[in-house]
Structures are given as structure tokens and as C-alpha cells.
């Protein structure tokens, strides 16, 4: 399951603003978007990823994505970064 990639990653960024910045800087290797996240939050980021060629993986829930990131709250988006 794709949550394992998030759990095993040394460096992750969580949150739309942070992840957007990582994609713009070219250090995001893969972006994870929660299926139940508000599309108004994620749509621009997904478009940016398509434009820049960063793979986007849709995961089931914000709660599980947050858990995989090691945080107590849900995460709409997260990225594995190369830094």
C-alpha cells in the first residue's frame, strides 16, 4: 500500500502550502493526496504536479495519511521529498 512509502520516507512534507513549495522547488519525488480531502484545496496542487511531472498517488483517507506521516490529525496532502 502507498502509505508504506510515506512511512518509510526519510523526508516528508505535510500540508498544501509546504507540499506546493516542494513541488515548485523540484524536490518532491511523489505527492500523496487524500481522496476525502476538499478538492478546492488539492486541485491546484494536482495540476501543478501534472505540469511538473511529479507523480500523484491518491490514498483513501486524510486520517490514514496523517497517521502514516506520524501526526495525530488528518493530512490532505503529503509529499516524499529528496532533501
From TrEMBL:
Q: Which SUPFAM superfamilies match?
A: L30e-like
Instruction: Give all residue intervals belonging to the Ribosomal protein eL8/eL30/eS12/Gadd45 domain.
Output: 5-82
- Gene3D superfamilies, per database record: 3.30.1330.30
The highest taxon in the source lineage is Bacteria
Instruction: Note whether Ribosomal protein occurs among the keywords.
Output: yes
GO CC annotations, alphabetized: ribonucleoprotein complex; ribosome
Q: Which keywords has UniProt assigned to this entry? A: Ribonucleoprotein, Ribosomal protein
List, alphabetically, the InterPro entries matched.
Ribosomal_eL30-like_sf, Ribosomal_eL8/eL30/eS12/Gad45, Ribosomal_eL8/Nhp2
Q: Which family does it belong to?
A: Belongs to the eukaryotic ribosomal protein eL8 family.
Q: What is this protein called?
A: Ribosomal protein L7Ae-like protein
- According to its UniProt entry, this protein's organism is Paenibacillus athensensis
Amino acid at each position: 500500500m502507498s502509505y508504506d512509502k510515506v512511512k518509510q520516507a526519510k523526508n516528508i512534507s505535510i500540508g498544501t502550502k509546504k507540499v506546493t513549495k516542494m513541488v515548485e522547488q523540484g524536490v518532491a519525488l511523489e505527492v500523496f493526496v487524500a481522496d476525502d480531502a476538499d478538492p478546492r484545496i488539492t486541485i491546484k496542487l494536482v495540476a501543478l504536479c501534472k505540469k511538473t511531472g511529479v507523480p500523484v498517488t491518491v490514498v483513501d483517507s486524510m486520517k490514514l495519511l496523517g497517521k502514516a506521516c506520524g501526526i495525530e490529525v488528518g493530512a490532505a496532502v503529503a509529499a516524499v521529498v529528496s532533501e
